[in-house]
Amino acid sequence: ASDVYKRQRWAFGWHHLPGLLLLLGFGIQAFTGALLAFYYRPTVERAFESVNLIRYRVFLGEVIHSVHHWGAYVLTGLAVLHGLGILIQRDYLRLRGQWLVGTGLLALLVLSDVTGHLLPWSQTGLWTTVRALEEIRRLPGLGALFSFLVGGIDVTQDTLTRFYFLHVSALPGLFVLLAFTHVHASFRSGLRRPSLG
User: Fold this and answer.
1) Residue 164: which of 20, 50, 11 has the closest Cα?
2) What average pLDDT does this structure show over 128-154?
C-alpha cells in the first residue's frame, strides 16, 4: 500500500507542465534581460535610442528583444493556465499556503510587465504607465505608498530609474525567492495526479 501511495504522491503528469514551463520561461526572461542590459541606458535621454540600438544595430538584438518582449506575455499566460489547473483540480483547498504564494508570483509577473512597459520610453510605454499608475493610486493605503516608491505622480527620470531597478533587480529577486518556496512546498506535499472529484 505504501508503494502505491508513493507512486501517487510523486506522479508527474501533463497538469504539471505549465508550472515547469513557467520556470523555464523565467530562466529565458532572465537570460534575455541580462543580454539587453548590456546595451540599455535607463535615462530619459538615452532609453529610446538604446532600445533602437539593440533592435537594429546589435547582432541578434531584434531576436533577443522580441523573445524578451513576447516572453513576458507567454509567461503571464502560463501562470494563468497553471492557476486555472489548480482551480480545476481543487488543490487550492488542500494547499492554501501554496495557493497564496502562487498568487503572489502572478502579482510579481504583472508588476514586472508594468515596469517593463516604461523602459523603452516610447509613447505607448509612457501612456500605459501613466494609466497604470492612475489605477494603482486608487488602491486604499497601498496607492499612496506605491506613488511614493515610484517617485510621485509624474512620470519622470525618477520613475524610469525606479522602474528599472524594480524590473531588473527587486521583482526578479522576489520572484526567485517565492518560486523556490513554491516549488519546495510542492515537492514536500508531493506531485500528485489531478483529483477531479
Assistant:
1) 50
2) 82
What is the 8-class DSSP label of residue 167?
Answer: I
Contacts of 149-158 spanning 24+ positions with Cβ under 8 A: 155/118, 155/126, 155/129, 155/130, 156/44, 157/43, 157/44
CA 108 to chain centre: 5
Least confident of 9-13, 91-95, 107-111, 159-163: 9-13
Scan for cell 535615462, then name that residue. Answer: 43
The DSSP secondary-structure symbol of 170 reads I
How much of the chain is helix, strand and coil, in % rounded to 5?
80, 0, 20
H helix or E strand, kind and range, residue 195: none
Q: State the amino acid at position 140 in one-letter form.
A: P
**Model confidence pLDDT, tens digit, residues 36-89:** 999 999 999 999 999 999 999 999 999 999 999 999 999 998 888 888 877 887
Nearest to 166 by CA among 112, 94, 122, 121: 112
d(CA 31, CA 23): 12
Q: Roughly how many angstroms between the first and final C-alpha of the chain, as a whole number? A: 21
Model pTM score: 0.82
